[in-house]
Amino acid sequence: IVIPRTQSEEKKSAIRSLGARLVEVDAAPFSSPNHFVHYSGRLASELNDSEEAGAVWANQFDNTANRDAHYQTTGPEIWDQTEGRVDAFVSAVGSGGTIAGVSAYLREKKPDVTIALADPAGAAMFNWFNKGEMTGEGSSITEGIGVARITGNLAGFRPDHAYRIEDAEFLPILFDLVKHEGLSLGGSAGVNIAGAVRLAREIGPGKTIVTCLCDPGSRYASKLFNPAFLRSKGLPEPDWA
After folding, report:
1. Structural domains for the chain
2. pTM higher than the cut 0.85
3. Residue 23: which residues within 8 A CB-CB, separation 6 or more?
């Protein structure tokens, strides 16, 4: 498994504990041959040439089986569980499979459903869909979301709204959920919820807005819930710290 070196230690430990070989690479732009996507593709090709069992390159960003899976499963699950009374869906973008697949299904079932994209600071989708510029400003401590290209899974997709969510906006939401709901969630879920809150304020009461709580806080405890780390970034800290 190939990941950027900047990913959390909790993620790395979990991968190693399951017996996988972990390959860490330096962060690089997608245009670089050393970007983790390109590196993983080369590694899979090399293993196919050298290992009897070969290798499979999941290529999750551009393999549209990702988007199709959400069209076939997540979208219908949302429709069924809301009994068709879903007014909006909000999601951040990593590979783009979730938001593209779910939105395709929901728009077929209910053409006037609202789809909103929530983008962390530093990512480019906010500017791309609002201004047509593939640029990003700032930075974020989130992992696994925020891209600066149209992936294979995002081809043909366009949201109705796109929001930029700063770390200082979603962190208090995560802390509140731990304290009052007993839910320990990760940064992607935090950005999703913050985006849902933004949309709710725009479209008003009486609407059903769906998002995904897609990652547990245990994967990011050394960052999201670490007062020293948060303080070093000038970010909000949990009030129990």
Report:
1. 2-50 (3.40.50.1100), 65-232 (3.40.50.1100)
2. yes
3. 1, 2, 3, 39, 40, 43
Angle (CA) 130-131-132 rounded to 5° is 110
The string of DSSP codes covering 175-191 is HHHHHHH---B-HHHHH
- Residue-wise pLDDT tens digits, 77-92: 999 999 999 999 999 9
Helices (H), 59-186: 65-69, 75-81, 97-109, 125-131, 167-181
Q: What are residue 209's DSSP bridge partners?
A: 88
pLDDT, the chain, mean: 97
Instruction: Retrieve residue 12's tokens.
Output: 């790395």
Q: Quote the CA–CA distance of 50 and 131 in Å, as a whole number.
A: 46
Which of 72, 120, 115 has its CA nearest to residue 90? 115
Q: Which among 25, 46, 22 is positioned nearest to 35, based on CA atoms? A: 25
